[in-house]
């Protein structure tokens, strides 16, 4: 057998990426929760409850960022509704958390407080089953997945692409937010779901429960990364990136772009649902503000800052941007939005490949840029003249080939 | 001159009875009275065209004659207003692009389109034959046969030494060959090749002639080309399109002496 180049994944040829991600997951999923629970508060190794809560929260954002990278970085679909998928997962888990409050609510009723307040007599049908953790977890994955599948099917089949697709996703998010703001929708309206007491029988106030949730988020991030890595390194992943670069050609290679987009899109939405389900018990509230269009735009910024098409970059992007956000909003509350905007502009202009590519040198990425530039140059040259563009060297070496039958006819006797 | 003689040797004056004989075999492609209009402009006007298996056919015609639109219709990129397209006995008029590819029609575009961010090898891998479903592709690895097919193609198109290079970094001619290679790996029944030598150097044109000539017989090949030297060298049969329908059909010398063709091209 001839030795052929082992087919590698196109964009993540960096062996360190997986190790770095593994290290992040170990720190978040094992080290931080362990140092919080095991060490006494006086120890210098002790990690405060605030840090645990923040770490867990940021890790959920990191999951969303990786999911975003799968569709944006690898499949070229810029989604502005990942915040919605995230919120839907959060609502599913929130519904479970509301149900297990039981009769301990303010009104001492079996119904969630907001329903008593609205004078509802019985549980709406779509709240059934949410007394069970397993059911809620499945719904946290299924509901965003199903919405993504149905919406994606119609959008991709109609060949809605690029910025048009992004705008439609933003409209969907906005519509969903308006729907969830209504009291009659049955998810607590403006206030959302809050005042949770316990999860799986463990009190949410206990530091050990919070440490466990942080660890679960770390595990969720590891799972998400491995799953996405498997997808992008498979032959299907190479089809996805090919589709991102030249969609028409992929079609003429015999692939159905609708199926590939739908797969990546639905998987990504389900991962967002998972992140939302991990997020809500840690922050203690879910309300329609999570569905604001700005939240979805921020997700795209995390991915862009870290580096699209790298999987590991968006993880850093999520920690960095959100870490900066929690520090800045406390230190200089009015400055945050300016900093975010500036960051996005600077990254886009100076480091279009994101932080990861800037630091790793990324030979392959640079090759790609050179290729694109050359493509662009040849396109310019081609559009300047007719369809026949002999290279300058060829012009000197041989007479230009005749372009039409007319030209040859004149040559014939 | 000599090339014209060669061409007539192959088809000869007895071309007609031959065609009648082959007609007993089912034609591979039948385009039947296809009309396509863009905002009132008739790009194709009741175009009727038949191709036999194994044929190498060149399609020529002035700009706007409908050559590329014809390819768009056959490959499912454009839907005809009226008329039908049948391939290997099946009606493909309303099929999607990828379904038509699965039936065995491969197409090379006018502008070389390869995947810029994938290596030459990966470009060929992407066009390999076999199931193209998402869930299959998640698990699939290249089989030995597929690897050998890619290997052979790399040799044929002369890019064996460049297999790890990114598609976007190839020269114009290399991209054209890679694209032809991508078609070959997928082993289509019929190849549609749009202007394969546009923008090539003389040496590159000769190499392309060799590649296409080696395909004739085994594959059915349709070539759209402006370069008449090139057409004369490779084609046995030429179809001239004009204003969306067939103006003349036959060997190169027949076509060139056809008074209607001369009129269209010289504007008598």
How is this structure best summarized?
The complex is a heterodimer of chains A (413) and B (268). With 413 residues, chain A is mainly alpha-helical.
Describe this structure in words.
The complex is a heterodimer of chains A (413) and B (268). Chain A is mostly helical and 413 residues long. Chain A has helices at residues 15-38, 49-74, 82-99, 113-117, 133-157, 162-181, 207-233, 235-245, 247-252, 257-283, 293-306, 312-331, 336-350, 354-360, 363-384, 392-397, 405-411; strands at 193-194, 198-199, 202-203, 285-286. In chain A, helix 8 crosses helix 10. The longest helix of chain A has 27 residues, at 207-233. The termini of chain A are far apart. Residues 1-12, 362-367 and 384-413 of chain A have low confidence and may be disordered. In chain B, the strands form 2 sheets. In chain B, strands 6-7-8-3-9-10 form a 6-stranded mixed sheet, with helices on both faces. Chain B is globular and about 55 Å long. In chain B, helix 5 packs parallel to helix 8. Chain B has 268 residues and is an alpha/beta fold. Chain B contains 12 helices and 10 strands. Chain B has one domain (2-113, 189-266): P-loop containing nucleotide triphosphate hydrolases (Rossmann fold, 3-Layer(aba) Sandwich), CATH 3.40.50.300. The model of chain B is unreliable at 1-23 (pLDDT under 50). At the A-B interface, helix 8, helix 9, helix 10, helix 15 and helix 16 of A face helix 4, helix 5, helix 6, helix 7 and helix 10 of B.
């Amino acid at each position: 057998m001839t030795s052929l180049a082992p087919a590698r994944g196109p964009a993540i040829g960096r062996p360190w990426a997986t190790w770095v991600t593994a290290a992040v997951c170990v720190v978040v999923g094992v080290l931080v929760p362990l140092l919080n629970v095991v060490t006494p508060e006086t120890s210098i190794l002790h990690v405060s409850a605030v840090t645990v809560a923040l770490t867990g929260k940021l890790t959920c954002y990191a999951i969303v960022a990786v999911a975003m990278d799968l569709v944006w970085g690898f499949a070229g679909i810029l989604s502005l509704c990942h915040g919605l998928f995230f919120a839907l997962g959060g609502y599913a888990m929130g519904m479970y958390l509301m149900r297990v409050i039981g009769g301990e609510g303010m009104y001492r009723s079996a119904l969630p407080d907001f329903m008593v307040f609205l004078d509802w007599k019985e549980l709406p049908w779509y709240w059934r089953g949410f007394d069970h953790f397993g059911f809620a977890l499945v719904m946290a994955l299924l509901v965003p997945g199903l919405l993504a599948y149905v919406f994606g099917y119609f959008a991709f089949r109609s060949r809605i692409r690029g910025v048009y697709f992004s705008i439609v996703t933003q409209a969907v998010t906005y519509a969903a937010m308006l729907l969830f703001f209504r009291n009659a929708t049955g998810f607590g309206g403006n206030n959302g779901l809050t005042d949770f007491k316990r999860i799986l029988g463990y009190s949410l106030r206990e530091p050990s429960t919070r440490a466990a949730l942080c660890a679960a988020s770390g595990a969720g991030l590891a799972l998400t990364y491995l799953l996405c890595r498997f997808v992008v390194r498979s032959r299907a992943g190479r089809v996805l990136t090919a589709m991102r670069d030249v969609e028409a050609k992929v079609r003429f290679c015999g692939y159905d772009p609708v199926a590939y987009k739908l797969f990546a899109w639905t998987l990504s939405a389900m991962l967002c649902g998972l992140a939302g389900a991990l997020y809500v018990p840690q922050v203690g509230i879910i309300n329609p503000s999570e569905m604001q269009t700005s939240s979805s735009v921020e997700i795209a910024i995390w991915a862009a800052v870290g580096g699209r098409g790298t999987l590991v970059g968006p993880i850093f992007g999520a920690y960095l941007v959100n870490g900066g956000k929690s520090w800045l909003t406390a230190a200089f509350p009015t400055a945050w939005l300016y900093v975010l905007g500036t960051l996005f502009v600077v990254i886009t202009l100076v480091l279009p490949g994101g932080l990861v590519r800037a630091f790793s040198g990324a030979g392959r990425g640079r090759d790609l840029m050179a290729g694109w530039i050359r493509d662009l140059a040849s396109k310019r040259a081609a559009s300047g003249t007719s369809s026949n563009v002999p290279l300058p060297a060829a012009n000197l070496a041989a007479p230009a080939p005749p372009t039409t039958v007319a030209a040859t006819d004149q040559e014939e006797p | 001159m000599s090339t014209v003689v060669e061409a007539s040797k192959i088809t000869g004056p007895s071309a007609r009875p031959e065609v009648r004989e082959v007609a007993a075999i089912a034609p591979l492609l039948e385009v039947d009275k296809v009309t396509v209009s863009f905002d009132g402009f008739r790009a194709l006007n009741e175009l009727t065209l038949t191709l036999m298996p194994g044929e190498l056919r060149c399609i020529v015609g002035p700009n706007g004659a409908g050559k590329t639109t014809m390819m768009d219709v056959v490959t499912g990129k454009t839907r005809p207003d009226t008329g039908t397209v049948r391939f290997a006995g099946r009606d493909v008029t309303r099929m999607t692009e990828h379904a038509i590819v699965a039936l065995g029609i491969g197409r090379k575009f006018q502008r070389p389109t390869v995947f810029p961010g994938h290596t030459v090898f990966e470009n060929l891998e992407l066009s390999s034959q076999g199931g193209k479903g998402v869930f299959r592709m998640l698990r699939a690895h290249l089989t030995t046969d597929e690897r050998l097919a890619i290997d052979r193609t790399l040799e044929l198109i002369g890019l064996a030494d460049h297999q790890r290079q990114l598609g976007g970094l190839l020269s114009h001619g290399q991209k054209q060959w890679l694209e032809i290679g991508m078609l070959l790996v997928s082993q289509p029944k019929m190849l549609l090749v749009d202007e394969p030598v546009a923008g090539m150097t003389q040496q590159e044109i000769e190499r392309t002639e060799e590649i296409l000539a080696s395909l004739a017989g085994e594959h059915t090949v349709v070539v759209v080309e402006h370069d008449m030297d090139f057409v004369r060298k490779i084609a046995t049969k030429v179809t001239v399109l004009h204003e969306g329908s067939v103006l003349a059909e036959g060997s190169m010398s027949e076509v060139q002496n056809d008074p209607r063709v001369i009129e269209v091209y010289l504007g008598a």
